[in-house]
Amino acid sequence: MSDKPNILFILADDLGAWAMGCAGNNEVITPNIDRLAASGVRFENFFCASPVCSPARASILTGLMPSRHGVHDWLRSGNIDINKLNDNQRNSGWYNEEKEGIEYIGEHITYTEILAKDGYSCAMSGKWHLGNSHRPQKGFTRWNVLARGGCNYYGSDMAHTDGVYISEGYITDTITDNALDFLDEISAKPFYLGVHYTAPHTPWNEDQHPADIWKLYDDCPFESAPSEPPHRWQAQTCQIARTEEERRRLLRGYYTAITAMDANIGRILRRLDQKGLTENTLVVFMGDNGMNLGHHGIWGKGNGTFPMNMYDTSVKVPLIMSHPGKIPAGETRGALLSQYDFMPTLLEYTSNADKIPAILPGHGFLDILLNGERSSRDNRAVYVFDEYGPVRMIRDTAYKYVHRYPYGEHELYDLRSDPDERNNLAEDAAYRDVKAEYKHRLDLWFLANSDPKTDGSREAVTGFGQMGHSGIGSGGYTTYRR
Hints:
Helix content is 25%, strand content 18%. With 482 residues, it is of the alpha/beta class. The protein has a single domain, classed as Alkaline Phosphatase, subunit A. It is globular and about 60 Å long. The N and C termini lie far apart (52 Å). The model has no long low-confidence stretch (mean pLDDT 95).
């Protein structure tokens, strides 16, 4: 791309790829996301690098796998500096596990830093959850973010350079309000605006969401989410439906959070139109990780079970890219792609291909985005890889293999005959050679794309949070509790 397009990057939190109208869900109300898909390209097989928020977000920004950047679980500590809290905040109980702000990806180059050096003004509103939320980092000069990772939808704790404050409004509205203020400040030059919603993450209780949107789902049967027996590995990391009444209530909260986010996305898109910026703005809509709401009997994402899981519903995420006149309108792409492919693609799109770090494992997919096919120069076999601590996945269009390094059990699925991943073939003698081949490819790829100091296959990750910098034997993970 010869010009410098503006970039609006919208990131949803825990949005399943199945939970959008444009993806075929006729119950959830997402008119603005659907219009965005109609004006651009929607990717049907886009995968997170890790099925939990902080590792995935670090991988999006750095293009690296968790075993290289060292963020392996959601960050339970290091989010804020307790010395910047007042007495009431210290005594609130919210920050008992916080000590000092840690910049978890400080040593790794991000695409926002590269864009900032290329003249972009970079602003960030919403969920950061990569440590030291007080300080603008990684090329951002405007900054208004969540203090921690999770929060209630009302009375949320936010952070900026002066400390922590409470936002009394609905957090989805607040994130949008701040983003619109930033947009007015930065739109005179090429800009990157990150809008990172907490939606549709828990909590899903009725009192957490606007009554007018909650009411839209009065008569919804919620047939778009399955009702299955509980998974034998279900963990206590998410709100869990134990009755049909509770299932419908939680789904209603989830769908309400999505629709409220969609309405706010509409506010931003309208502001772009009003300011005459739409024609020169690349809009990216992405999810950080997938989500199960009864899928496979799981409530939650990768850490919805222990051991952690790698079902497609956990690792497949939404991606829509729209830029009028530059990107085809109303098309879908079926290519297997990952969040670690996004950084090189964005740098190619902004004419910064020469600044793509050689260490990145991913490949730019600009040809797929613009033309619907891979470059004629790209003859590699296509696999996607995923990890969550000691759980790793390799997947292509034929098979998915999941390996759990210290404790098993392993999984192998023939996706051609079993796309829903119901029949585990890992111990089937007829598939012994397939299992060995995929395990070999998995090991080789991670050997090339991991740092021995932060190799997740040796980390005691349980899905209950990371307490500090990773490192073999660091003890920086919260012990699993039933």
